């Protein structure tokens, strides 16, 4: 893989199909601003590639053109998570819910609004602030227990609309050499997030239990931030896994020298 990538390089930061990627000088007094700009340019090209793919998906489906194929990425959306769990209250009647086959869209609209960097010969640290206008999620759910005096055991479809998403991401990586080129290897990734406004609900409750569906939707929308707080540890762990895989692939595909020059 590295040999192929090095072979298509047209110069530092200039790769066939990636000519938009401009490296930042390590001595630039505005290095952090430059890196944030480069990150946003990369995000924009992911977004453009996705839009182009949607327009001609019928023609290019067999070729697999989506995301940024020159980086080996398939479609960057949707983000798919296997399952999440929440538990409210204790005892045998405590409410428990499981969300499965979670499908989330909107992450490709993110923007890097802040960036801090610490660079040394043996380590790179990045702190990023990300802003995402809106994320829409859908999932299957299954629940059991009692909720607001209603027996809430059942299953159906879940939907969520999350607006004003802010995320803070910390990345620690180490440079290493392959054929006289420096690459980065991810060592650690941490993240946290908040959501300004949440609308969510359930529908198609099995057995057509309209009383249960109305009770669940009333509770969910009256306690959306509290429910997010309960989901957050599990959700954050899953998102860190997804984001780590994305960053590892990006670091493996594009040399460090294409991001930062001496």
From TrEMBL:
One of its GO terms (cellular component) is extracellular space. Pfam families: JHBP. Keywords: Biological rhythms, Signal. One of its GO terms (biological process) is circadian rhythm. This is Protein takeout. InterPro entries: Haemolymph_juvenile_hormone-bd, To_sf. Belongs to the TO family. It comes from Vespula pensylvanica. The keyword Signal applies. It comes from the Eukaryota. The keyword Metal-binding does not apply.
